[in-house]
Amino acid sequence: MVYMKKKWMWIAGFIAILLVAAGSVFGYQQWNETKTKEKKDRVAQEWVAMLKEQSFEKIPGLVTKDSVEQAGYTEESIVEKYKAIFGGIGVSNMEIDYEVDEEDNLEYIATFDTVLGTISEIRYKTKLIENEDDYKIDWTAELIFPGMLSDDKIRYTVNEAKRGEIVDRLGSPLAFNTITYQAGVVPKDLGEGETRTAKIVAIAEKLWITVDFIEGQLGQSWVQEEHFVPLKTLPYGADTPAIEAVQYQQVDTRAYPLREAAAHITGYVGEVNAEDIEKDPTLQAGDVIGRTGLELAFEKELRGQNGGEIYIETANGEKRATIQKIEKQDGQTIEVTIDANLQQTAFDALGNAAGSTVVMEPKTGNLLALVSKPSYNPNQFVVGISQSEYDAYNNDEDKPFISRITTRYAPGSTFKPITASIGLESGVTTVDETHQISGLQWQQDASWGSYKISRVSETANVNLRTALVKSDNIYFAQEALEMGEETFREGLNKLTFGESYELPLTMEPAQISNKEVFESEILLADTAYGQGQLLMSPIHMAANFSVLANDGVLTYPNLIAGAKAKTKEVFVKETIDTIKPMLVEVVTAPEGTAHELNGTGNIAAKTGTAELKKAQGERGVENSLITVFDANDSSYMAVSIVEDHRAVGKTATQLIKPVIQYLELLTQ
């Protein structure tokens, strides 16, 4: 019995050993399979990451040497092949989904951008080969593009889209494509020695370029004695002066026929640089894009999309397969609400003044003119402005690059009808109430210290009509103080202070004051007649003052033709019906501040002067302003500002007359 018991114990132990051994073998197999899978996954991940990052120098370490040699490549040439192809067609933004199956096949789907746009779901498949203690990719040229052979090449053609035009409300071009002339020389025509030197000096002077630049152009490696060497592309509309040894050839360009008159609206285009191409790989050297203005705001719509084809070409120069084919889409035409003739008229009317004129249709919000002066010629920037030409603009003390259309100013007395409207609706201001005012200066009490509010015309008894016609600052200051800040601000907040407009223009919102509350009664009083910290651009003024021409309804400004008018009710019609006849008298009454415009048409107006000074008592720079609108059917409203009008010698009222005359012709 003892023997049998020992025998069974021995058998059980043997079985246990077998079971442990079997478990160990199974565990080892599981461990080995896991490690093998990790190796396969790792090489697959590294291959995908290399493609997405375009780290092609890693390729030799990821592929088998045999497959590379069999394909006819070396470690160096396979790297260069990828760089040339991916770089040539502008591959970027690659996204890849991949998997490794049980048969060691690596399959992946790639989507990426090229110079022609996005290629979606390109399918690849290869084998993972065990290589010593690791796995590597079995490489063929089909891993560049499916269907590609080792000696094939990748080619592409581009069919350039035509940039869309910017046109005014009547279809007249504000920006269009045309030709200009490029000045250059054929080296042999320059002669030698002193003759050559003299000709180059003369060319430099007449083309506004430097001798060093000319010599640099002539010294390029490709230049030959009988080849045309470009020196300068002339802006659209420029003359082609006869210069000894200089020839001209036609080149494509973007043109702005209104030149300075519309520069701050249209902006301009310029050639792309390396940074532009890095941001947008669909761009290529030589392309032009919008740099400022509407050209920039509507870049996508105007540029359209280039067409073309990317294809595989055989060693014999035949097309093997198309990879991507895109039909070109020319850019859209952007129609704006501007009237080109009115724009030019308003620009010319400002003469030598620095300032701005904005004309709007109060009922639709359509902006008919947006003038900023002084300005610059955008055609110069398209072809590449010279340093001396740029310096002339940049050093101009009147700052022609500043868009005064969107610059914020104190609106001055042009704001008084708004204060009057708030006062009437609050019940504080009445038509019959008369203020007894003595002298040209006034302060509420001694707490104001030395600060006093001034007026231009001394009138003892001032009612609302007199205050508007003669533009009495003291009257409106007193009305605002009687209303109080809460009531006055409540009225102001019905307008568009603090709001951003839906315009393709960069502009800070209009503001009532620097802080959410007035910090003194003086600031409240000053704001009532358009000074203090009140800031509005000419566009803000046109939009907010539209309530005066539009029965109390404010119309938001619009620059794109066909857009639906956006409005909001601010004042009741009865309020405007009370004020509007008084604004007509600003023009018709002999004592009216805009009486110079009497006879121009049935118009209503409000003039203003905003003084910029550092301290009470000193005389500062004065900006002259005027708001004018059609009193018949509110077909137009114009706002004009003349900076430092005393230096100019003319007020905004005097300078705007040709604009009103033109607008009156349009209404007939």
Descriptive notes:
The protein is an alpha+beta fold and 668 residues long. The chain folds into three domains: 2-151, Roll (Nuclear Transport Factor 2, Chain: A), CATH 3.10.450.100; 166-335, Penicillin-binding protein 2a, domain 3 (Ribosomal Protein L30, Chain: A, 2-Layer Sandwich); 340-667, DD-peptidase/beta-lactamase superfamily (Beta-lactamase, 3-Layer(aba) Sandwich). The protein is 34% helix and 23% strand. It is built from 23 helices and 25 strands. Helix 10 (340-349) runs antiparallel to helix 23 (657-667) and helix 13 (416-426) runs parallel beside helix 15. It is found in: Membrane.
Are there runs of 5+ residues with pLDDT below 50, and where?
A: none
Task: Report on the biggest sheet.
Answer: 5 strands, mixed
Total tally of structural domains? 3
Estimate the global geometry from the Cα principal axes.
Answer: elongated
Give the CATH class of the largest domain: Alpha Beta
As a percent range, the share of helical residues equals: 25-40%
β-strand number: 25
Total count of helical runs of at least 4 residues: 23
User: What proportion strand?
Assistant: 15-25%
CATH H level of the largest domain: which superfamily? DD-peptidase/beta-lactamase superfamily
Write down the CATH topology of the largest domain. Answer: Beta-lactamase
Domain NTF2-like N-terminal transpeptidase: 43-151
Domain Penicillin-binding protein transpeptidase: 355-660
Subcellular location: Membrane
Keywords: Membrane
